[in-house]
Amino acid sequence: MTTSTAFTIACAQTDPVIGDLDANREMTVAAIHEAADGGAKLVVLPECATGGWAFTGMDESLAAAESVVDGPTIAAWKAAARERDIWVCGGFGELADDTVYNSAVLISPDGVESVYRKVHLWNTENNAFTPGNLGFPVVDTPLGRIGMIICYDAWFPESMRSCALQGADLVLAPSDWVPNPGQQDMPSLANMMTIAGAHSNQVYVAAASRVGVERGQRFIGESVIAGHDGWLLAGPAPAHEAIIFAEIDPIGSRQERRDNIFNRPLGDRRPEAYAQG
């Protein structure tokens, strides 16, 4: 008898206060517990969920950064993951060797499994963070092979493709999506990039975006969970604090993805024909 490998994943939209690490920590831990109450086995939190995003410079982002080794927020997420037997992915300002990265961490009930540092910095992030230096790590887990990106990374096809070429089944995307100038009467560009990335790489994508306004910058929410065919399984979420849920099967869908007779954007690749650089 085949045992289902499906599980419920959640994306939690929060509204962090810049620089208020204690309040933001409580907010994220409450969201983890609410997601667990809803049956989630894995919950994704937004980008920079611990300290806020709109920093004026490196000194300010440094003051809100934490170590992945002994930072209090990471410790709180580890405790919640262990208590609820749940996996947690969240964005935070990472302090490492006196350098600050816009990072995401993947935590299991046993502790930290992976850290990703945002490769593509957007706009004023270049003044507050150092570009990531870990590439796009993918880790093997009981839930499937999992990679991470952060927000603006989704605008670069190489981001999700790098995860997919390493065998990722699921890409987690903590995000702080903002309105795009010239938006037409159609899905947000952020949603479209997520859908396209899921479809063109045959991976599930769970993107959790924050809400609220920070130093004049509005954040749209609209978190989504996309299936490996690109179609939305949950979301877009409304523009307020909320949690969305979907059932996914990253391990059980591998054969279906590989043998898709309609589109096989991974299996039909021809790298020898592509421009390099």
What shape does the CA trace take? globular
Largest sheet: 6 strands, mixed
How many domains, in number, for the residues? 1
CATH C-level name: Alpha Beta
- What gyration radius follows from the Cα positions, in whole Å? 18 Å
Proportion of residues in β-strands: 25-35%
Distance between the termini: 49 Å
With helices defined by DSSP (H or I, 4 residues minimum), what is the helix count?
A: 7
Low-confidence blocks of residues: none
Number of beta-strand segments? 14
In the CATH hierarchy, what is the architecture at level 2?
4-Layer Sandwich
CATH homologous superfamily caption: Carbon-nitrogen hydrolase
Q: Report helical residue fraction.
A: 10-25%
Structural class: alpha/beta
Average residue-wise pLDDT: 95
Order of helices and strands: EHEHHEEEHEEHEHEEEEEEH
Assign the CATH topology: Nitrilase/N-carbamoyl-D-aminoacid amidohydrolase
Oligomerization state of this entry? single chain
Question: Biggest sheet: strands side by side, in what order?
Answer: 5-4-3-2-1-14
List the helices and strands and how they pair.
Blueprint: E1 7-13, H1 21-37, E2 42-44, H2 58-63, H3 72-84, E3 87-96, E4 99-108, E5 111-117, H4 125-128, E6 138-141, E7 144-148, H5 157-165, E8 170-175, H6 189-201, E9 204-209, E10 211-214, E11 217-220, E12 224-226, E13 232-234, E14 242-248, H7 254-258
Parallel strand pairs: 1-2, 2-3, 7-8, 8-9
Antiparallel strand pairs: 1-14, 3-4, 4-5, 6-7, 9-12, 10-11, 12-13
GO molecular function: N-carbamoylputrescine amidase activity
Protein name: Nitrilase family protein
Keywords: Hydrolase
